[in-house]
Design goal:
The structure is a single chain. By secondary structure, the chain is an alpha/beta fold. The protein has two domains: 205 residues, Rossmann fold (3-Layer(aba) Sandwich); 102 residues, no CATH class. 36% of the residues lie in helices and 17% in strands. The protein has 13 helices and eleven strands. Strand 4, helix 6 and strand 5 form a beta-alpha-beta unit. Helix 2 crosses helix 8 and helix 5 packs across helix 6. The termini are far apart.
């Protein structure tokens, strides 16, 4: 047996979002004989993920295509606390891009130890994202994650100082790329050259940059001190109304959203019209005596098939049931005042 057979194979943990850049980064590592374990992070705010718990079909499909194992990790309450109070601030929405990268890399570092890997690979491109991919940001992320010299960015490596994998000869720096800026032309050309056809989210996707989602999350952080992951999921769909500081109503806009609300609202009051099809409403907070009528009128406003007045509202919460009758529907002025 020769010396090369005695050498331990080099292994890397690669962040795989399902986008083009992270897919190409893994491809470049595989072409140099590096063993890769992909890690994909899922959260309610990732537009690369389907709206289904614990899955990102695209990332898993790409991992199968590349023949690499994948670990899927969920961003939990610790991540929501970061969104609420990031050390390094928000972007234009509620996106804590620097803190998010540090969070994911710290998780990847733990996985690196578990998998006995030597370094971490990302698809970051110098200058592509204004908040998190300029040189100072990359340096900050590396320091704060505790991974100095062990984060290899294959697509922009030629613009960056040599990393430990390059210095140790685990990776040939000459075969790495010198891509920078926001254009995707070089990545698309490389994808064609390498035969990479399965990828998505070419421009990335995070609902935390959406002003509506950001506004709803700010409302959660302000008025729901006991918030949990269900509140984060609620912020991404439906119609949201705050009647007062102690009560928020969320209504589905279609059958799919109604079903999602019904599942999320197992511990929260659920309201529907008793005799007509219409939206499901989930309540977050405490119903005061004067809230029943405006809630019923709000349901009436968004139930287009209602042909009678007054209507009966049905409320279910655990084993509790109640009904009441309301007339009329919410005015435009009330909607403007309540809408989140």
């Amino acid at each position: 047996m020769d010396d090369s057979q005695h050498k331990q194979r080099v292994k890397a943990i690669a962040l795989l979002s399902g986008g083009l850049d992270s897919t190409l980064a893994i491809k470049l590592m595989l072409s140099q004989g590096v063993d890769v374990v992909a890690v994909n992070f899922v959260s309610p705010f990732c537009t690369c993920s389907p709206r289904r718990e614990g899955s990102c079909h695209l990332a898993s499909a790409i991992a199968r295509e590349l023949k690499v194992p994948i670990r899927v990790l969920s961003k939990g309450m610790d991540y929501l606390r970061i969104i609420e109070r990031p050390r390094f601030g928000h972007g234009r929405g509620l996106n804590p891009c620097l803190d998010c990268r540090i969070y994911m890399l710290k998780q990847a570092a733990s996985l690196m130890e578990t998998e006995q890997a030597q370094f971490i690979v990302t698809g970051e491109v110098l200058g592509q994202r204004p908040m998190s991919q300029h040189r100072a940001a990359l340096d900050l992320i590396e320091r704060e994650s505790g991974l100095m010299g062990r984060i290899l960015r294959p697509l922009s490596a030629q613009w960056l100082p040599p990393t430990i994998p390059e210095q140790n000869g685990w990776v040939d720096r000459a075969k790495l790329m010198a891509i920078r800026g926001r254009s995707r032309s070089e990545q698309l050309a490389l994808a064609k050259q390498e035969g990479v056809e399965l990828f998505g989210c070419a421009a990335g996707g995070c609902l935390l940059t959406d002003p509506v989602v950001a506004r709803r999350l700010k409302d959660v952080f302000c008025f729901c001190p006991d918030y949990d992951l269900r509140d984060a999921k609620l912020a991404t769909f439906g119609r949201h109304f705050r009647l007062h500081s102690g009560l928020k109503a969320v209504m589905g806009r279609n059958q799919e959203e109604n079903e999602r609300l019904a599942r999320l609202g197992t511990d929260w009051p659920v309201l529907e019209l008793a005799d007509f099809p219409g939206p499901v409403m989930v309540l977050r907070g405490t119903i005061l005596d004067g809230d029943r009528v405006p809630l019923g009128r709000l349901l009436h406003r968004y139930a287009p098939k209602v042909t009678a007045d007054p209507v009966t509202v049905r409320r279910a919460w655990g084993d509790q049931r109640e009904q009441w009758v309301v007339s009329g529907s919410t005015t435009d002025q009330e909607l403007d005042a309540w809408r989140i």
